[in-house]
Amino acid sequence: MSRARSFFVLVCAGWFVATPLQGIAGAGDFAHQLSDAFTSVFEKVAPSVVVIQAEHKATDEESASLENFDFFFREREKGDHEKGKRFQMPETPQHSEASGFFIRADGYILTNNHAVEDADKLEVRLKDGRKFSAKVVGRDDKTDIAVIKIEGKNFPVAEIADSDTVKVGQMVCAIGVPYNLDYSFTCGWVSAKGRSNLTNTAYEDYLQTDAFINPGNSGGPLLDLDGRVIGMNTLINGIARGLSFAIPSTMLKDIGDQLIAKGRVTRSWLGLVIENVADDAVTRDQLKDADRGA
Question: Residue 102 and residue 71: Cα distance in Å, rounded?
Fold first, then answer.
């Protein structure tokens, strides 16, 4: 009968590593190295990540919801001609927070279109506490990418990696502002690549990750263990489900460069609609001899 062996189990971000008990010192070294790697990523990238506060005027629907309370603001009746007269209520601005990161040292910041769309006022807060007013340079709703800018120079810039080299299973990290909790850091893996047909945006090629991404993380970077941006966190499927999606860095660079140069994205149009034969029953019936194609 073989003897039972004791194992030391290291748990890190849901990763279980079992090693024989006599190798526990080596496991401890590995844990410290992994911890140091995460710490290095945060210290390297966090200064280039910003908090974006967008201010929107109250909508007509939001203003209408106050009508049930308007008796508090009625003036005392002075005569028939003044009955029902009310004090004027100031418009209440609506605030939302999102994330972004510097892509140029002269103040250009990459974020999500939905984070800044229709904002009346944008304020950017840096890791060191400084605050700046920001303006929108360009937006692209078809990819949900936007570029905003603050005035200044020598801002810390996030390094952009080639997302085409990303592999399913590699470890990744995220920095953002979930639920107004500034500079939260989470880790996970790349769960899949090339995810599409998730939203009504026209161009989708998402990286899927199980790193915790929550409201407020929108526009923040998805990073490899070298602290390089491989994507921008954009989309989640429910809270704490481990189904989060990021726009790949290759798309970010292409769209971002166009928005900085021209304020918009120029695309070519082809007078054809392309679809897979296998996806359309009518087409399959018409092309019975073709089992694949477009």
Answer: 48
